[in-house]
Amino acid sequence: MAECGFDAVLIDCEHGSAGPERVEEMARATSLSRIVSILRPEDPSPWMVTKYLECGVDGLMIPLVSDAKVAQSIVDRFRFSAPFDHQDRMLILMIETIEAVNNLPQIMAVEGVDAYLVAPGDLALTIGAQPITYEWQQGNKPQAVAEVVDRAIKTIVDAGKICGTLVNHSDVGSFVDKGVRLVYDHANHMLSYGAREFLGRLKQSPYKLEAVSA
């Protein structure tokens, strides 16, 4: 990822299996590769903020922040856990529920947050929509989901805050046009897209070739 020119990698402990020991190794690897490490913990518990900051990651992306009280507790623990360099680390709060969207003005009033990431998949579940599908990856979100995502993005951007969201190769440009400045995609999606692109070009060859993975 560093060689490709990306600014950061996400270490996902909410949906992944990495524990503190493995996180420490990954944080060292990213530091040596001169790329920023952002970690998503299992939940917004304050003690997890301390645990993972002490593993050496450059920032945290906290899930399930639905109101200002939770946001303030995260900021307080973030500053407590990194008293001398918290200003040099990134704190991102994830907006994943309709409650969080409705509470965005109060959440954004809490000082000490660097960015807010709108999570379309979790938002879909909270409004009773279908979870992420392959069609989503092609930029075809259900209208109800697209509307609530756009509403959250507009609220954040209009407040002059840094907004992020999940993107893919087909819709990243449209989100940047809406003011999104923090974009991310899953590594397996990137790999899948790249593999399909490679295979598609191979099949267009005038020669009868077979794709063989190493």
Automatic annotation (TrEMBL):
Keyword hit for Lyase: yes
Task: Give the keywords, sorted.
Answer: Lyase, Metal-binding
Pfam families, per database record = HpcH_HpaI
Q: In terms of domain of life, where is this protein from?
A: Bacteria
Concerning SUPFAM superfamilies, the annotation shows: Phosphoenolpyruvate/pyruvate domain
- The residue range of the signal peptide is none
Q: What is the lineage of its organism?
A: Bacteria, Pseudomonadati, Pseudomonadota, Alphaproteobacteria, Hyphomicrobiales
The Swiss-Prot or TrEMBL record describes its family as follows: Belongs to the HpcH/HpaI aldolase family.
Q: Which InterPro entries match?
A: Aldolase/citrate-lyase_domain, HpcH-HpaI_aldolase, Pyrv/PenolPyrv_kinase-like_dom, Pyrv_kinase-like_dom_sf
Q: Which residues belong to any copy of the HpcH/HpaI aldolase/citrate lyase domain?
A: 3-179
Please state what the protein is called: HpcH/HpaI aldolase/citrate lyase domain-containing protein
Q: Which GO terms describe its molecular function?
A: aldehyde-lyase activity; metal ion binding
Q: Has the keyword Metal-binding been applied to this entry?
A: yes
Q: Which GO terms describe its cellular component?
A: cytoplasm
